Amino acid sequence: MSAAGDRLQDTARQAALALPDVSHGYPFTPGLDVYKVAGKVFLIVTDDPDEQIITVKCEPEHARAQVRGYASITPGRYLDKRHWISLGPGPGITERLVTDAVEDSYDLVIVRLPRPAP
User: Fold this and answer.
1) pLDDT at position 4, please?
2) Residue 79 buriedness (CB in 10 A; 0-12 / 13-18 / 19+)
3) Helices 5-17 and 95-111 meet at what angle, rounded to 10?
4) What's the pLDDT score for residue 82?
5) pLDDT for res 80
6) In its keyword annotation, does this UniProt entry include Transmembrane helix (predicted)?
7) Could you please report the per-residue DSSP string of the chain?
8) Strand 32-37 relative to strand 22-25: parallel, antiparallel, unpaired?
9) Which residues of the chain have pLDDT under 70?
10) Disulfide: which of 70, 86, 89, 116 matches 5 by Cβ 3.0-4.6 Å?
11) All residues at 6 or more sequence positions from 57 whose CB lies less than 8 Å from its CB, including other chains
């Protein structure tokens, strides 16, 4: 079942808030709900009702495959187009795909965080 725009955004928000140590707010503009872990962005939810998209971090190879595989996945808006993708409502965009994209984005940020000294 495809996720409509508002459901896509709600699914992304719920997935992000279920992850450990996540904060969110509107640091850039009132229309962009930004989710961070350890001060690093991993999800942006666009609040514009005419442009219901989410933007997540993605490995470049996987990002290219996603853009080729889904008409409503595009290179990331607002950010480096090789490392970010934007998902909008459309064929094949399911709640599971959205949740996986948010979790994968979070994991990419966590992996790159400095490790605490022993």
Assistant:
1) 64
2) middle
3) 40
4) 81
5) 76
6) no
7) -BPPHHHHHHHHHHHHHTSTTEEEE-SS-TTEEEEEETTEEEEEEE--TTS--EEEE--HHHHHHHHHH-TTEEEPSSS-TTTEEEE-S-TT-BHHHHHHHHHHHHHHHHHTSPPPP-
8) antiparallel
9) 1-5, 116-118
10) 89
11) 41, 42, 83, 84, 104, 105, 108, 109
**8 A C-beta contact, residue 88 and residue 8:** yes
Cα 1 from Cα 91, distance rounded (Å): 9
**Separation of alpha carbons 56 and 45, rounded Å:** 9
Tell me, what's the pLDDT at 49? 79
Amino acid at 74: T
At 3 the pLDDT is 58
